[in-house]
């Protein structure tokens, strides 16, 4: 069951990202995706395999749901949040979108415990809130860095 | 996370490779714009991470990188080593003016280079196969990655006004 839920969610997020009027170009989107996936994969590996703060299922189907969440769902939620933040005007709206994105990431991650994909042994949603806030900041910084670099190249040509 | 389990030939090989690969990267005349260079370095760094933590670890666990299945600093050096290879692929793609007809032979040459590097990495104890994994399975991975890299570059050239 979990594989269907998370596959559909992954498909929906990719679809939404494609259809929204996005200010990020293809290369900027790719950079944000790659940076987010690197952080997401490394953090989940350290939390699960190295520190054993979260236990992950040994059932193949549920394990795919975990992979989908780590490698597609989390990066695309971050990218969607960032794209909407860039589109919005006003600091308050941007802050609201930032908080909503972090909450959404936390809810999706927590939902893995419902499907018995995860078991939080020494972990809780407050840690997730902190981690996902950090992930959002990293994605914003990577976008800013690459956007400035791209602007520099455009000005030179 | 530990630095390494034992400082032996795989660590020496990785450090030597790091010096050689980045020397080549900095010495080559710059052909690609800065933003493409950064993008392809990032692609080269990310792809081995995705594969290592998906099929090289966890449930499938087809191979072990360096001395143990635990996360080591040497693993990070391994990923940093791979970063310029995606750049080299695009660099020579542009330099040799690769087009539709030459795309397949060019990619096949890179698949062979990738396989040779993997055999060398295995010999130097950087990579250890597990759970019936064999080197020839990597052909599929190389073909997919290199084809993606080439096609993605073509897409960028179409969309990017600076190219």
Helix content of chain A: over 70%
Q: How would you sum up the major sheet of chain B?
A: 2 strands, antiparallel
Weakly predicted, low-confidence segments of chain B: none
The largest sheet of chain A, given as strand count, sense and whether it forms a barrel, is:
2 strands, antiparallel
Number of helices of chain B: 5
Question: How far from one another are the termini of chain B?
Answer: 41 Å
Per DSSP, the total helix count of chain A is 5
List low-pLDDT spans of chain A: none
Mean pLDDT of chain A: 95
Keywords (chain A): Membrane, Transmembrane, Transmembrane helix
Transmembrane segments (chain A): 6-24, 31-48, 63-83, 95-117, 129-146
Keywords (chain B): Membrane, Transmembrane, Transmembrane helix
Transmembrane segments (chain B): 12-32, 39-64, 76-92, 104-123, 135-156
Briefly characterize the structure.
By secondary structure, chain A is mostly helical. Chain A has 5 helices and 2 strands. In chain A, strands 1-2 form a two-stranded antiparallel sheet.
Structure description:
The complex is a heterodimer of chains A (157) and B (163). Chain A has 157 residues and is mostly helical. Chain A has one domain. Chain A has five helices and two strands, in the order H-H-E-H-H-E-H. Chain A has a two-stranded antiparallel ribbon with strand order 1-2. In chain A, helix 4 packs across helix 5. Chain A is elongated, with a radius of gyration of 16 Å. The termini of chain A are far apart. Chain B has one domain. In chain B, 67% of the residues lie in helices and 4% in strands. Chain B is mostly helical and 163 residues long. Chain B is built from five helices and two strands. In chain B, helix 1 runs parallel beside helix 3 and helix 4 packs across helix 5. At the A-B interface, helix 2, helix 3 and helix 5 of A face helix 2 and helix 5 of B.
